[in-house]
Amino acid sequence: MGSKRTRRRFLQQSTQLAAGGALAGLAGACGGGGEPEAEMSSPEGSTVDGRPNLLFFFPDQHRPDWLGWGNYGLPLATPNIERLARTGTNFTRAVVPSPVCAPSRACLASGKEYDRCGVRNNGVDYPLDQTTYYGLLRDAGYHTLGVGKLDLSKPSHDWGIDGSNHGDAWGFSAMINSCGKGDGMGAYLREPVGPKDPYYAFLDSLEPPQGRACADDYAKRGRTRPDGWWGDSYPCPLSPEAYGDNWVAQNGLDLLEQVPEGKPWHLVINFPGPHPPMDITKEMERLVRGPDRVLEGLGQPHNYTGNMSPEQHVALRQNYAAMIENIDMWLGRYIDWLEEKGQLENTIIVYASDHGEQLGEHDLWGKSVPYQASLGVPLLAAGPGIRPGVETDALASTVDLGATFLDYAGVPVPSDMDSRSLRPVLEGATETHREVLLSGLLTSRGDFRLAWDGRRKLVRDFGEEWQLWDLEADPQEARNFASQEPDQVRRLQDWLPERLA
After folding, report:
1. What is the largest CA-CA distance in the chain?
2. pTM
3. Whose CA, among 129, 136, 159, 260, lies 20 to 30 Å from 32?
4. 357 with 373: CB under 8 angstroms?
5. Residue 454 and residue 296: Cα distance in Å, rounded?
6. C-beta of residue 115 within 8 angstroms of C-beta of residue 390
7. CA 161 – CA 195 distance, rounded (Å)
């Protein structure tokens, strides 16, 4: 899908990263690492109607506290996400409307809270007759692009071998929708064995083919330890060019090269990582566990009583860090591309995630629970008009991103959307956004709902009928204050919606 020029450049950069010094390689490849920010003054990047381009980095399962600067306290090399924080606004109390893939992405696309988004869990496809903010942007003149794991047809595996199925209904001008890690593995190994989506089709087009090796590797990781995909940290068999996050990001750059000149565009890049399994390439491993750098100081999970050893925890966290750092590197390459095209000064860049990751806390892996590690996400934005260097504790949800993009595009937000534009906070018109954030999910554990005011979180039907967690008094969310603070319970109960059937 990429031109020979871009494919060759990708391989050259990947080789440089693997062969050179780890941190120096990251900085050099991504345009970060201490270099002064480029002046955003190139006039050639303006769109015909003056509206900004909208670039949205949307990885899968990036915890809110796994960033590499300031109060985060982790030794991660994320210079480009940090650049967004320096040149834009960082929301430190952002959550998702549902902490699992398909509902979270349905809420994002529709601009509706969980009980109204039409997708109750990962077993439901996005309703094709439901409006998306992507379609509203397209209808208003934007060239809308989507690559990677959109997860709007998750249970049906209805990607299409070229990744274009349902793209028009979802509102995309061009789309390469591909599988997530587990879905792609299962689909490939299902009879007839072979690719069912564009990513595995790409893997099998390589010489030698790599699709079966990838699927078998994922299947093996799921069987080898009690903690499944989280317990195995050995390198995957894929080359850098074949690695899923790299393939997705390159597709996005290739689609940007095809945008009609002068037309505003919106691109959402749905990375498969840092979702488990904790698969990284040999080249990525060298950057966190190699001769030039051994990443330490990544901590241990709270409230963990499982069988994984401290050494295993360190290794899997190194892999998780490697995936985040690799995505950060791609953010740098996109910033470089925008600078080369003269479009950086006219592009809003947003970084968020569809949910977090427990990493063993409360003896849990993955997401789908109301704890902050699962519910919270990074949320940063930079671009024209956005205040630089601001860290805000305004309550924000990823459900608000649709209205934010529409606002910057000059498109009215439909009255049936729950999404609220973050633009007033981003530009300094206000320091507050929402009084309470909502989230929920139907799981095998129950059908929980929650309301969080930034300190107290009321959770209904998660083990107990009512739990009240105070994140200031008990950041680990291990104590139930409901019986001690009945007034707070009643106050937050008033915010919880009625469940829809």
Report:
1. 65
2. 0.91
3. 260
4. yes
5. 31
6. no
7. 8
